[in-house]
Amino acid sequence: MNLSADTQTVSRPTRPPAPRPTTQMMIGCFIIPLLVAAILGAVFMMVRANASSSLTVPAKQILLVRLSPDETAPLLARFGEGRSLKITGRTPDWGWLEVELWDNQRGWTLRPLDTLVWQLKAPETTPTPAEAQAVSVTPVAEEMITIPAATFTMGSPPGIGEDDERPAHLVKLSAFELDRTEVTVGQYWQCVTAGACAAPTADSSADEPHYLNDPVFDNHPVVNVPWLEASHYCAWRGKRLPTEAEWELAAGWDAERGAKLQWPWGNEAASGPVNVGDTSLGKAATVGSQAADKSPLGALDLGGNVSEWVFDWYKVDYYSVADETNPIGPTNRRGEGTGRVVRGGSFVDSLEQARIANRRNQAAEYGYPSVGFRCARDNDF
Question: Is the pLDDT of residue 40 over 70?
Answer without folding.
Answer: no
